[in-house]
Amino acid sequence: MLSNIVKSVTMLHTLVHALVVLGAVVVDAAPAASPYDYIVVGSGPGGGPLAANLARAGYSTLLIEAGGDEGDNPTYADIPNFNEAANDELTRWDFWVKHSDDPARDLKFEHTTWDTGDGTFYVGLEPPEGAKLLGIQYPRASVLGGCAMHNAGVCSLPADDDWNIIVNKTGDTSWSAANMRKYFKIIEKNDYLPAGNPAHGYDGWLSTSVADASWAKNNSLPATKILKKMAELTGQDPENVANLVNSDILGEYENADEITSFYNMATHASKEGKRSSPNNYIRATLADPAKYPLTVKLHTLVTRVLFDNSTTPRAIGVEVMEGESLYKADPKHVDGTKGPISQILANREVIISGGTFNSPQILKLSGIGPAAELTKFNIPVIKDLPGVGERLGDNYEGSLLALGQSPVESGLITLLFRTPSAPTKKRNIYTWCGAFSFEGFWPGFPTNYGPKQYECALVHMAPKSQAGSVRLLSADPQDVPEINFRFFEHEGDKDLHELVEAANILREAWQAAGEPVLPFDELHPCPKGTNCTDASQAEYFKLQAYSHHATSTCAIGGDDDPMAVLDSKFRVRGVQGLRVVDASAFPVVPGAFPSCPTMMLSAKASEDIIADARKA
Ligand SMILES: Cc1cc2nc3c(=O)[nH]c(=O)nc-3n(C[C@H](O)[C@H](O)[C@H](O)COP(=O)(O)OP(=O)(O)OC[C@H]3O[C@@H](n4cnc5c(N)ncnc54)[C@H](O)[C@@H]3O)c2cc1C
Ligand SMILES: *[C@@H]1O[C@H](CO)[C@@H](O)[C@H](O)[C@H]1NC(C)=O
Ligand SMILES: *[C@@H]1O[C@H](CO)[C@@H](O)[C@H](O)[C@H]1NC(C)=O
Ligand SMILES: *[C@@H]1O[C@H](CO)[C@@H](O)[C@H](O)[C@H]1NC(C)=O
Ligand SMILES: *[C@@H]1O[C@H](CO)[C@@H](O)[C@H](O)[C@H]1NC(C)=O
């Protein structure tokens, strides 16, 4: 019934555009109304759930995804295979990024990657003669479900203030942390707490579960001794650690941002370890007997957005190139391969959800971005928006890694804490510790140092600098843009100091491990046999920090902010009928892990877009 009403409203919506501005050429638009109300580009945590929700609300929706569907492939479906998934050529897009404007500094990154010319990579500091520099690998997944199909599935919420700052910037109170909880509850299908917990949802599409932490009850385990010492060093009760490790990381707390605590480790997976992602929701929507009007077009690269020529240009559709491995970040791409190009129109809106690297690229190829940059590549300017592709931000990640004299038997320890020099009362570090090694990304990551490896992985949750950028290298949509994170550009010394403080606290806790684990032979940041100073550690983190949570290249901002790309309803400023819904929309890095926050943002966008449609 509802969907019928919606359809008749849609038919009243007439297409007023007469011309399509296509590159420099103006061509006739297709005269008939499109079969699609909405076109969504990209099926990750931003676009995937949004397309499903629009279709479920009765709007005919086309979801376009450059990759294929690996939902049944165990490499992707079973969360413990995540490292294999992120290395898999089947879906991998390799972005070779820079960490700074200083090539000499970047060349000191231990996992710098080179093309040897014989089809293999060299990773390290002494490349063979003739090898070509690629840069620092930053993997992304091009597949139905986006990076939520190859990530580790860690589900964590932003700081409350990461939402509240959007209220401050835009005046839109619907972004308050208290209100955003609603969207978490809409998407969540909690798989670890008894029904009725008011902070949680039980009927959504995203399964959440937590790791077993019962090992922490065993006081004789070296890991429990470390845990107790960590408690002491961070102002928690060492006698209560067996309970504290079950604190609900997805719970709702007053003054949450100021709490230092151990937590359970939540993932977007079922308790049986099956990955839960937009892929499941899209497939469930397609399979639903209600026959929701969702069409999914795989292996299709969107090359630009099409606009009419109204005074305020309106997005009326997209241009696509069809085929597999068309984008040059795809390691399977064959030089010179192209696919047929066509145009697909939308009656209502185009929504870009290509992720933090691709959404700004698509906008720029479409004539929306810094005018000087577009003009350099002969792209006609539809709207001069200087913020597109700027303010790229990411967590700084690093690790304390060592080999014990014997294995450190344990499960994971998850701790969110505040280091002494943090500028506010807010906690700044998310760490997870266990018998693993994770040192960032390069082809073939991670290194397995054997059963004695022990690590605390560190995420700085609130980087003070967001000076990175995604900029075009050409007007060719198959080309990859230039990505430079400019790590530590602003107040970098402070963030480095906070990372060092964190490492020092954790290292001190490790010394409680006792026999037979001690002494730990540290690999970094203080390799055995070197002098471990704050300065040496800061230098280590400056050169070796890595990241994989890029955001903010199409940031939401206020009317008075010239660098704002979106308004608070995800609308691209200065044009009509175009929104961006993905991790690029966050004005500040949303806590330690962006996947669940992006799915919350997508649920909010769904509600906002449907509300607008019903108003019209
Ligand atoms: C190895 C790895 C591990 C991670 N681990 C975690 C974790 O444990 N927890 C966490 O919270 N986050 C993690 N992340 C980050 C998280 O997965 C991403 O932040 C999140 O997926 C971003 O969602 P998105 O919708 O913005 O973009 P994406 O997930 O990147 O989705 C974008 C989609 O758009 C498609 N696309 C792009 N351009 C085009 C185009 N021109 N035409 C058609 N389609 C296009 C892509 O193919 C892709 O499927 C990890 C990321 C990586 C790479
Ligand atoms: C928002 O603005 C208020 C009033 O100026 C301020 O007290 C608060 O700290 C700001 N919050 C954030 C997250 O910026
Ligand atoms: C605690 O851990 C020790 C060391 O691994 C083990 O020998 C012991 O059986 C464990 N105790 C319990 C109650 O599980
Ligand atoms: C836009 O359309 C108007 C009216 O049809 C036409 O006069 C004008 O030349 C067009 N402008 C462009 C840039 O195509
Ligand atoms: C460490 O520092 C001390 C004191 O400055 C110095 O004597 C020693 O040689 C240094 N050791 C190493 C391995 O650099």
Report on the structure:
The protein has 616 residues and is an alpha+beta fold. It folds into two domains: 2-19 and 28-74 and 147-206 and 272-392 and 549-615, FAD/NAD(P)-binding domain (3-Layer(bba) Sandwich), CATH 3.50.50.60; 212-264 and 395-467 and 489-544, 2-Layer Sandwich (Cholesterol Oxidase, domain 2). The chain is 25% helix and 20% strand. The chain has a six-stranded antiparallel sheet. Strands 13-4-3-17-27 form a five-stranded parallel sheet. A four-stranded antiparallel sheet has the order 5-8-6-7. Helix 2 runs parallel beside helix 10. The longest helix has 21 residues, at 595-615. The radius of gyration is 24 Å and the shape is globular. The model is unreliable at 1-31 (pLDDT under 50). The structure holds flavin-adenine dinucleotide and 2-acetamido-2-deoxy-beta-D-glucopyranose (4 copies). One 2-acetamido-2-deoxy-beta-D-glucopyranose is lined by residues 18-19, 26, 309.
Give the name of the CATH architecture of the largest domain: 3-Layer(bba) Sandwich
CATH fold description of the largest domain? FAD/NAD(P)-binding domain
Q: Report the strand count.
A: 27
Average pLDDT value? Answer: 94
Distance separating the two termini: 19 Å
Oligomer: single chain
**Major sheet attributes:** 6 strands, antiparallel
| Helix coverage percent | 10-25%
What value does the Rg take, in angstroms?
24 Å
Please tell me the total number of domains.
Answer: 2
Side by side, the strands of the main sheet go: 11-21-22-23-20-26
Kindly estimate the percentage of residues that lie in beta strands according to DSSP. Answer: 15-25%
Indicate the overall shape.
globular
Low-confidence stretches: 1-31
Distinct ligands, ions and cofactors found in the model:
flavin-adenine dinucleotide, 2-acetamido-2-deoxy-beta-D-glucopyranose
CATH superfamily of the largest domain: FAD/NAD(P)-binding domain
Structural class assignment = alpha+beta
